[in-house]
Amino acid sequence: MRRSWTHWARAVAVGAVSLAMVAACSGRSTTGGSDAADGQVTLKINFWGDFGLQDLKTKYESANPNVKIQLNSGEYNAQHEDLQKKLIAGNGAPDIAAIDEGFMVQFRGQADKFVNLLDKGAASYESKYLPWKWKQSLSADGKTQIGLGTDVGGLAMCYRTDLFKAAGLPTARDQVSALWPTWDKFVEVGQQYTAKTNKKFVDAGTNLFNPILAQQQVGFYNEQDQLQLEPGPKVAFDYTVKAVQSGLSANLVSFQADWDKGFTSGAFAVLACPAWMLGHIKQTAPGTEGKWDIATVPGGGGNWGGSFLTVPKQGKNVDEAYKFVEWLVQPEQQIEIFKKVGNLPSQPALYSDPAIADFKNPFFNDAPVGQIFPKMAQGLTPQYFGKKHGPTRVAVENVIRRVENKTLKPDAAWGEVVKEAEKAARS
Amino acid sequence: MSTTRAAPTPPGHRPAPERGNTPADERRMTWRNRLYRFDMRYMPYLMIAPFFVLFFVFGLFPLLFNAVVSLRNYRLDDPTLPYWAGLDNFSRLVGDEDFWNALYNTFGIFLLSTVPQLLLALVVASLLNRKLRAQTWWRVGVLLPYITPIVASTMVFSVFFSREFGMANWALGLFGVGGPDDPIDWRADKLHSWIAIATMVNWKWIGYNALLYLAAMQSIPRDVYEAAAIDGAGQWKQLWRITVPMIQPVVLFTVILSTIGGLQLFTEPMLFDQNAQIATGGPNGEWQTIAQLIYKVGWKDLNLGYAAAMSWALFLIILVVAGINYVLTNRLSGGKR
Amino acid sequence: MSARRAGVVGRAPQDTPAGIWTYLFLALTMLFAAFPLYWMLVIATSNDEALAKLPPAVVPGDQFMTNVREVFSLQDVYFAASLVNSLIVSSVVTASVLFFCSLAGFAFAKLRFRGSNVLMLFVVLTLTVPNQLGIVALYIVMGKLGWNGTLLAVIAPGLVTAFGVFYMRQFIVNTVPDELVESARVDGATTMRVYASIVLPAIRPALAVLGLLTFVATWNEFQWPLITLSGTDFPTSMVAVSDLASGNYVIYRRVLAGAFIATVPLLVMLFIGGRQIVRGIMEGAVKS
């Protein structure tokens, strides 16, 4: 009998210890990363893809021994949704949150939930930024600046010289740029390529739609935040459908495994390349070094994507967080990121810095990326992105995928776009 | 239910010692008496209390509270809406294409998974029911999928059903279906995506159900089969004519279990998506199930009130379908007796 | 009709020696059951190219440690922590289910108290209630308690199960003789004493079965942990694996290496306790 009692006692003890462990763990989560006792500060920064922060983190940590940086890369949509949830919940948000321009309107509408960087002395940076970039993250009354810009996308076309050559197309970047002054011409070139090689020309319909939409005066929403599908989205959509119908698209879903493999296997010969895309290509298809080059985008300039770093108010170390953000946007770091992953800074003074202006990217056949992208970023009138821009984009991309999958007839497609976009606007 | 219960005479009622009782003894007596009375009368309730309290707080209460939430405007991103929504959430539900589409998908996948799953489980069970060498080894073997996390296996199947490099397309190509020039896109239309997801569900549950059937089969008295020998029934006929009707209660049990499970399908459709984070279950919701839609509405669109209404609708649907299945299966497997 | 044939059909299946076809079909079933796990291992041990290879790679590679190291070094996935978290959650839930359910099962099986029949009926009825349906409200409740995003949110709803009570009651009814309980009572043992010294030792096999089943089920849970823990520093291993597969670089050898590691504890359990799990499932079937 005694034996059973000890058994029983042991079971209780195990249970109690485990519960204590749980309590300890959950307790730790509520105190966040900070530990006032020894002055150690952990800064958590949420972003997506590759912001080129890996080496900078080490550098900053060794210069500031009391700070630990925790990099937290996630999926593009998920990071923004997660931030929104945490802002509502009032806790759990990272110390620093990256926000894409496509979601900026939604978040600057909740400016009270972010640290006003003007209070921290960010006003001095206004003159350094592209004016439109500065305004994108400014609250409607102009009194609160919630984020400092990191990069702008710009827009160009990356193409595979080896595949172009095999198809009998020119390979020099000027000649290639001359092939497609307009999207109509671009589709024609694609048809030639496909006829000759029996291979697909572009990666995905959605990756035609987005850059073309980015070139329009008005995107999904007008400045009154009303859904406005014509003419902007309609123009982009029509070109996309035309390209898909001509069999140009490899119908891959961007940022997914098959798409990544397509870079290596030559499943497509060209794709729209904002500056931030360069890093992704380099990382996913290291074996294709030297086979890529960069030409101008049909239809003139444009900008696709670009981000900001914000400091949510609920963080426990907002001052340390701002210090790190401020450090990151300094020219030295911005140039390092540019060289590392291709993200183009949003401070025009840097464009004439030789480190950028003379930079040729060896992975892309020594293309003068320091010339190509800044040209576009400077003369730009940016689009307004509505509060529901993010979900609307997902909804319309889904319709495009259905056309590519041939589960939706092209002539019925526009009706679907209208329906799905309206649904997303209401969601 | 057992009817015999221990009810011994309380120790305190043993004949009191003849020696004179001191007040201290008496006090001790009543204390023990009280303890005994407490033990007999209240201890059982104390023993079942943790279960009922915890179950009520984290199981039953949320279910009931869900009803309240479904009648409210509960938007995480817009607390300014009026508190009560009345039946708005439910009337929206009736006209919501996404809901009906998800319901359709859920049933499609449910049929494609439940029927083959239970039939194959029967066959496997009848094979396991033979006199086998290394009997335990086989039984444990069929449980491999049961203990494998669905998250892990879905990742594998997700690659397996990839359009460009998937093994499924490669294998079908060997038989002249699809092939590298015209590969099947498992994520492009309803039928193919349903088949892919149903395959995952079948894989997971065949072994488990087979063991349930096997247990029932082994409790069938041997003489039943001996009697049937007169008819000259073969093994196949034996299975359908004798075994299945004899294990009918367990068949009913598995039908209900897979109804409840199948209508709540979440992990497989969720992680089958190339970008699981958007939770749309395909570009046009080709394979979005109700559970997935509830997740999207609640935690992507942040509309918890509407998600709660959907949960209630799903609850009612499960009740109705489980009922129908019960009656149908009862008829089908019992009718031949 | 030959005597041989008559002999075969007259026998119960249990007494019919399995033929070559039976073995063949069962072997195919095994292959089907084991294949995804095996292929998980193949990809988890290979480099990037193996995935795109057609005909598919069938032999494990030598990159396992590389892949594992990558998985553990991804800061944003918290993989190592997630394994500990899953271990904590599954252990606490299992211990609690075993304790509370055996306690309640004992009370329902052997003790007399008013309302026991009605309360037991309630337990049986709730067996079939899918608790996933209350998930929205559960999230709100956890929010009010301030538990969302902590392991408590995942542990609390699992602490007791109706199945556990039901299973324990059945087992105790069948294996603990009334006389034993009675004689202990006569000796002056309290109810808890009877539970500890008579019931617990007698139901050890059932505890093993229920424990294994509970542990496996808790470890594998996905939907609720995803809702309450995603985006925090405290994922369970299932949430962490799904995190590996989201993001802008989905590298399947990593995803499947993570998936494989998260499956290993369960494979070990099946290896050690397979017999018990099989018996548990089969007993559950006959008695219900």
UniProtKB/TrEMBL annotation, chain A:
**Which Pfam families is this protein grouped with?**
SBP_bac_8
Which UniProt keyword terms apply here?
Signal
The answer, when asked if Signal is one of the entry's keywords, is yes
Could you tell me which PROSITE patterns the record lists for this protein? PROKAR_LIPOPROTEIN
Task: Tell me the domain of life.
Answer: Bacteria
Signal peptide range in chain numbering: 1-23
**Can you name this protein?**
Extracellular solute-binding protein
UniProtKB/TrEMBL annotation, chain B:
Keyword Iron listed: no
Q: Which key words tag this protein in UniProt?
A: Cell membrane, Membrane, Transmembrane, Transmembrane helix, Transport
Describe the location of the ABC transmembrane type-1 domain by residue ranges: 103-325
Membrane topology label: Multi-pass membrane protein
GO biological processes: transmembrane transport
Q: Which residues cross the membrane?
A: 42-65, 107-128, 140-161, 194-216, 246-266, 304-328
* Coiled-coil regions, chain positions: none
Cell membrane as UniProt keyword: yes
Q: What is this protein called?
A: Sugar ABC transporter permease
Query: Can you tell me which family this protein belongs to?
Result: Belongs to the binding-protein-dependent transport system permease family.
Please state the span of the N-terminal signal peptide per the UniProt entry: none
Q: Which GO terms describe its cellular component?
A: plasma membrane
Q: Where in the cell is it found?
A: Cell membrane
Q: Where this protein primarily resides, as one coarse class?
A: membrane
Q: Where is this region: Disordered?
A: 1-24
Pfam families in the cross-refs: BPD_transp_1
From TrEMBL, chain C:
| Residue ranges occupied by any ABC transmembrane type-1 domain in the UniProt entry | 83-273
Membrane-crossing residue ranges in chain numbering = 20-41, 77-106, 118-141, 147-167, 194-219, 251-272
Sorted UniProt keywords = Cell membrane, Membrane, Transmembrane, Transmembrane helix, Transport
The entry's cellular-component GO terms read: plasma membrane
Predominant cellular place of this UniProt entry's protein: membrane
Q: Which PROSITE patterns match?
A: ABC_TM1
Per UniProt, subcellular location reads as: Cell membrane
The domain of life for this entry's organism is Bacteria
Any one GO BP annotation for this protein: transmembrane transport
Keyword Transmembrane helix applies? yes
Gene3D superfamilies, from UniProt? MetI-like
InterPro entries, per the entry: MetI-like (IPR000515), MetI-like_sf (IPR035906)
State if Transport is listed as a keyword: yes
How does the entry describe its membrane topology? Multi-pass membrane protein
> What protein family does this chain belong to?
Belongs to the binding-protein-dependent transport system permease family.
List the protein's name: Carbohydrate ABC transporter permease
